[in-house]
Amino acid sequence: MPRVKIPLEPYRDQITSWRHEGFTRKEILEKLKNEENFSISMGLLCRHLLDWKVRVTCPRYVGDDELALQNRIVHYWQHNFADKGIAAELKKDGFEISVLTVGRRRREMGLLKRRERIGGKKHPPKAEMTGSSAADVDDEARPTASGDDEEAIVYDYD
């Protein structure tokens, strides 16, 4: 027996307005069940929302919550918390956010760790440290006088 096709076009305006008002997909399904007296699956609802060019996922934090989240990430970053620690503290503060999302948001705000600033490498490879171009590799290279009259180049990594 073929499936019965449920036309959602008559409800398109109502469903899209609920979505733009911030209702979750589960809430929309409940509203359709209670107010319109029919039930559909989550997959069908998502498929129609995509066809109608309605954003399926909604931003988790909007307005003041977004600003509060950013301020807390900055605060914990300035106190030398790692992403894992920031995520744990944010969860204590009531924000549901993963470690990966903390890292992504931190980088978007320009809060970079040292190795992120220099291309993901902690130190340049030793092969790059030879020859006359060694000073070009490390800005903190400084010549120091040795016991001889020659100059030795010392690289300060930390």
UniProtKB/TrEMBL annotation:
Acidic residues: bias regions: 147-158
Annotated spans, Disordered: 114-158
Name by which UniProt lists this protein: Clr5 domain-containing protein
The organism of origin for this protein: Saxophila tyrrhenica
